[in-house]
Amino acid sequence: MAKGKAGLPRFTVPSMSLAEGANVAAILQDRLNALNDLALTLKHIHWNVVGPHFIGVHEMLDPQVDAVRAQVDETAERIATLGVSPKGTAGALVKDRTWNDYSVGRADSIAHLGALDMVYQGVIADHRKAASNTEESDPVTNDMLIGQLRELEQFHWFVRAHLESSSGTLSTDGSDTEVEAATAAEKDAAAH
């Protein structure tokens, strides 16, 4: 990529400085990595889910994968619009991510949903932070992130509906890791 002064892009969108464009692109690159990772994680779960609720979870995940992949494309194209080259390779994702790889292999559907609850919590919290950080500097990016949040939060609700009791308690409450959440969800399901 051709860069201008101090590693800044040569162009960005009208009314934004090159530094602002580069800053928003950096925020979006982190979101691009997270969304690419989420799409891969959802597909991994789709392939590795087993148990009595297999087909329901298996079929619930494919529309989520498709929607997240569309968000990946939208995010990468916004980065390019800002004058920066989006990095979409597996190596760049692994090098730059700040989270661990999804750690549940072949497992019961409720275990995967417990772990996926934790994944969605992290992605959504970071997406909300990115939306907040772009609210003033780039309303177009902010609007895009808010639209993505609407979908991500709905998908998270679909997952949590499997983990919630009729009293509103989540089986994953108090879990700090995917494995803890998977174990808690399995224990709760076995008790009921």
UniProtKB/TrEMBL annotation:
Similarity comment text for this entry: Belongs to the Dps family.
Domain Ferritin/DPS: 26-164
PROSITE patterns, sorted: DPS_1 (PS00818)
Listed Low complexity bias regions: 166-184
Pfam families on file: Ferritin
GO MF, any single term: oxidoreductase activity, acting on metal ions
PANTHER family per record: DNA PROTECTION DURING STARVATION PROTEIN, GENERAL STRESS PROTEIN 20U
Span list, region Disordered: 166-192
This protein's name: DNA starvation/stationary phase protection protein
